[in-house]
Every structure is written in structure tokens, then in C-alpha cells.
Amino acid sequence: MRSVYLRILLTSLATLILSLIAFVMVSQFVALRSAGGDSNARLGSLFLQQAVDAYQSGGPEKLARQLGQFRSFLLMQNYLTDARGRDLATGADRSKLLAVAGARIGRPKFHEGHLVVAFASRDGRYRLIVVFEPPVTLGQLAPYYLLILAAVALLCWALALSVASPLRGLARAVERFGRGDLTVRVNSRRKDEIGELSRAFDQMAERIGTLLEAERRLLQDVSHELRTPLVRMSFAIELVRRAVGRHAEVDRLQKEINRLTELVGTLLQVTRAEGDPSSGSPEQFELKALVEEVVRDCAVEADARGCRIQFESEGELTLSGERELLRRAVENIVRNGLRYTPPSSSVDVRLALFAGGARIIVRDYGAGVPEDLVDKIFHPFFRVDDSRSASTGGVGLGLAIAQRAISVHHGVLRAENANPGLRVVIELPRPDAL
Predict the structure, then answer these.
(1) pLDDT for the residue numbered 317
(2) Which helix (H) or strand (E) holds 427?
(3) Phi, psi angles (nearest 5°) of residue 358
(4) What is the rounded CA–CA span in Å between residue 198 and residue 72?
């Protein structure tokens, strides 16, 4: 049986039917035990003695009156017979009922929906056959059993549908995803295991979609970015072949090789950040010490450009994560500010705390970014001015790496024009707020 829906439905119905059968069997068993109990045995012996006394003292007529009194008090038929089963009140043959009661006197038996039990006198001459009239027969209960069966069957159908329907939806989503529709999501709101499975699929689909999109974007951008240094290297090789003094050309080749090496390393880092953020080694570190380290490392570059870095801290916060990745992100943002801030000015770096975590604010005093391009500066290989070379504007990966690194730490990175300059804000949550 391949259908989960049919399996659940049929299993539930089979369980219900077996439960009804077990209920009937237990009811009969309880009735047998109660009819064959000591109290009923003593009561049967008492009725037998009274019936025998009535028959011996007044004959069949008095016996019939006595048995009628028994029937008026209890829901049962009573017959006093001889040892062969002849009814002493009416003369009818009760041998079949006596045979149903069996050789074990006092033990009840079921016969045609009735409970039959026989009691024998001490001298063995008389038998009292008692036929209990059930207050409600099985045939009378059948419509109610069928009603219960229908109600429970409806509930079983709803249960099977509630389990099978989301599984079918999940199967269709997996099939569409397998055919290449990377945008498909289940978006289940269930709180049970099926909802957890659906959300796990959505997370997997989101991660795979991100990986594939990053791979396509990486291949496109790498082919574009590697073209220029390769052309320059080819041109430098031709110059080396023709030139007498080849030191300058060799230096140029070494410079291009170093740029390619740095570019490949940067590409690997951004691909790692986009593909598997959890592959790093998390550690505890102080955010203030990390920012101070970045400021010290960038101070030399600031002096070379004729500007300075001003750092201000309002508190301390301990974070858990990949320290080197976050340090590289902050460093990329600070170096980006140094690249565009004019000489004799400064890059302001400020660490501030708020209720949910900390903010790192980096501001330069350059020309800023056009408002319609502010959100695009975090895209890989994006440059505000496409005409700039890598020596003046970088390859456009620094802020992209920063955004992915901060996202790995559950933070937010945004930029805004400060007029003059650009303000980049990093927001990092406290570990206990995650």
C-alpha cells in the first residue's frame, strides 16, 4: 500500500472495528461472569427451592403463579422441569434449553442472544432453567454502533487527510524544486513534525538557491574580473621578450600575479561566507578589542593617505562567532572609508551599545554615493564608477564580504549618505538575544 492516506484511514478503521468486536466480547464475558457469580448461584438455588415447594404443595397451577412472581421482579424467564427437561408447569419440552445449559449446572451459556443457566435440586429430580432477558439486545444496539462507526470513520478520514495532504504538498514542492524551480517554498504553519519537515525543506531550498545563485554570479564575475589582468600579463610578456632591461616588466608581472592571487583569495572567502557560514570555528571575543585592532592596522594606511582615524567607544560587548571573519568585515569597511575620504580629513569609527546589542558606525567625508546606488554597494564586484580601475576602486568585493560576514553573525549592515561622506552602520545582536 503506497498511499499514506489510505494506510492511515484503513488502519484507523480496522482499529475501530477490532475495538467494537473486543467490546462485545468483553461485554459477554462480563455478563457470563456476573450471571455465574456466587450471589446469582445462591439466588438461583433459592428460586429453585421455592419453585419446588410450590409445585409439591400446589401442583402446576401454584408453580405457574410462583414463576410469574419471579418474572414480575426480574427480567428473566423461569422454567421448572424434571431431570429430562419436561416443563412441570405447562408440560412443554424444555430439553433443548436444558441441553444448552450443559452438564455444568450453574454455569451460564449464551443462546440466541439470551443468557441461559440451569440449577439442579439436591436430589437431582428437578431443574430450574433461567433465561435472562437482556435490557437491550445486540440488534437494538446495532444502529448506535453504526452511528459511532460512521462518526469515528469521519474522524479517521479527517486525520488521514490532515496528515496526507501536507505530505502531498511537500512532495509536489520537492518535485518542482528537483525540476529546477528554486523559488518554490512550502511555507507551512503547522507546529507538528510535518511542519518541522516543511520548514527544514524551506531552509534547505533557501540555502541551495543561495549556493547556486552565488556560484552563477561568481562564475560571471570571475570571468569579467580576470580578463583585464590576464590581458596585462600577456602584454607584459611581449614587452619582456622585446625589452633589453626587463626588471620593470618583471615587476609588472609580479604585481599582476599578486593581484590575481589576492583576487582569488578574496573570491574564495566570499564564496565560503555565502556557501557555508557555519563551517568556521566560533569563539568568544570582545568587540571593542576587535575594533581597536582594526583601527591600529589601518592607521598606517591612513597616514600614507594624509588622513587619520578617530575612534570612540561607549562600552564593551562580548560576542560569540568567527572573530577573524568579523574582523575582516570591519577592516574592509574602514579601508573603504579611507579610500574615498579626502586628505587632511578623518574617518570616524564609533562603537555604541544599545538594548539589543552594539553598533559600529564608520563615516568618511568623501563624495558619498548616489542615493539610487546606496543599496547596491554591497553587491559583489559593484563599483559606483565602472570606469575606475582596480587600483583606484578595488575589485568591489570588500563590502560584499563584510555584508556576508555580518549576516553570519545575525547582524545587519546598511549605508546612508552623511552629506558629506558615507556612513556605514553595523548592528550586531547580543548572544542572549538570538
Answers:
(1) 87
(2) strand 422-429
(3) -140, 155
(4) 68
Query: What is the C-alpha separation between 200 and 187, in angstroms, rounded?
Result: 10
The DSSP 8-state label assigned to residue 100 in this structure reads H
Amino acid at 308: R
Q: Residue 361: phi, psi to the nearest 5?
A: -110, 120
Q: What is the mean pLDDT of each run of 10 residues along the chain (434 residues)?
A: 64 76 67 51 76 86 83 74 86 82 58 73 83 62 74 77 81 85 84 84 86 71 66 71 66 72 64 58 86 91 90 88 86 90 91 90 91 81 54 61 82 90 92 73
Question: What domains are defined for the chain?
Answer: 36-135 (3.30.450.170), 279-433 (3.30.565.10)
Give me 427's grid cell: 548592528
Transcribe 225-253 into DSSP letters: HHHHHHHHHHHHHHHHHH-S--HHHHHHH
Specify the long-range contacts of residues 296-305, CB closer than 8 Å, at least 24 apart. Answer: 297/331, 298/331, 298/334, 298/335, 298/338, 301/335, 301/338, 302/338, 302/347, 305/338, 305/341, 305/343
Angle between helices 4-35 and 138-178 (to 10 degrees): 160
Answer yes or no: are the C-beta atoms of 334 and 309 closer than 8 Å: yes
Coarse DSSP helix, strand, coil percentages of the chain, rounded to the nearest 5 percent: 60, 15, 25
Q: What is the C-alpha separation between 319 and 317, in angstroms, rounded?
A: 6
Contact 368, 420 (CB under 8 A): yes
Which residues contact residue 206 at a Cβ distance below 8 angstroms, ignoring those fewer than 6 apart?
185
Q: What is the pLDDT of residue 373?
A: 85
Distances (CA, A) of 426 to 80, 110, 120: 102, 85, 100
Q: Which of the 8 DSSP states describes residue 37? A: S
Q: How would DSSP label each residue in 162-175?
A: HHHHHHHHHHHHHH
Length of the chain measured in residues? 434
- 426, containing H or E segment: strand 422-429
**For the stretch 386-405, what's the b/e string if a residue is b when 16 or more beta carbons lie within 10 angstroms of its beta carbon?**
eeeeeeebbbbbbbbbbbbb
> Dihedrals φ, ψ of 286, to 5°?
-90, 130
Distances in Å between the alpha carbon of 73 and those of 70, 81, 88, 256?
A: 6, 21, 21, 115
pTM of the model: 0.48
